[in-house]
């Protein structure tokens, strides 16, 4: 069997995961992304996975059975259950909540199985990456934790080591919590500090449970960090940790709410830098995980100006049809934006930045807030991995 280069999870039914008018987690993020990707030819010849709805057995590989039933009940009767995080401001109840969330899970699990079985080298589910959901509660726009369930499915299929890298502006707390004491899973999160941003966690001192010391890696960046600091932090921590862990598969979460235009966060990253990190993660999958790569979506709430471009780049990198940041956004897509929203969208696939990496080898600056965050992470986790916090 010859592996396909990439499989992509997509069908219009994925738009059902939507908390309603005015909520930041609008399904327009996906609709606009896939329209843009199609118009740029990124999806030409790419096999699309149209997932069904994950079974309770699949959901309960991570979630408590009582929670799954609570989601069903809330969706069927429209009644809030704040103790389970349902019917809150972040996670309002909507009629198809269970089915829509379970469909996202099915997409990530099918994509994971395709990668693990060798049917595809890479797979992408941009509807996925719902990294805040906990075993017994919804949290932060996330009902079911598809990322954790996808990882669990590969472990159950025989994977011995899975690395998860999360570059969302918000800490990947749910995935970390689920695998906190599991030495088979490395979780790395590069995010805005929890001192300023939900969920208030993800500090360097969070390094894993007693049986898995050093397998939770957190880089908590100061608010206002831009391209240079963001790329420096990623490069100073992620590649060395992933290489040392030697995963059999790499799972990545590409929340693009680190962008300067995002309305919910305070980082200052460009689409150009986000695209660069997607290419680095792709290359790292080939170097450290035999090319097995599952890429997921996540946050991102500048749904016109940022998300479609950032995620089209993720799709293009996975499909080995890279789109240059100078490429014009198609007129047809911009016309759709004008007709639907009464405004103009971006005219290029990048922000006109030229991100430059300032490598950690240039030296540590104790007066720099980003450098202090990086060093705190390396000191907390690298020795437990067998890495030198100063040299690797």
From TrEMBL:
Recorded hits in InterPro entries, A to Z, give: AcuC, HDACs, His_deacetylse_dom, His_deacetylse_dom_sf, Ureohydrolase_dom_sf
* Pfam families hit by this protein: Hist_deacetyl (PF00850)
The biological pathway it contributes to is: Ketone degradation; acetoin degradation
Q: Is Endoplasmic reticulum one of the keywords UniProt gives this record?
A: no
Q: Which Gene3D superfamilies match?
A: Histone deacetylase domain (3.40.800.20)
UniProt entry tagged with the keyword Ribonucleoprotein: no
Q: Which residues does the UniProt record annotate as the domain Histone deacetylase?
A: 23-317
Which keywords are on file for this protein?
Acetoin catabolism
In terms of domain of life, where is this protein from? Answer: Bacteria
Which family does the record assign? Belongs to the histone deacetylase family.
Any idea what this protein is called? Acetoin utilization protein AcuC
State the organism named in the record: Cellulomonas edaphi
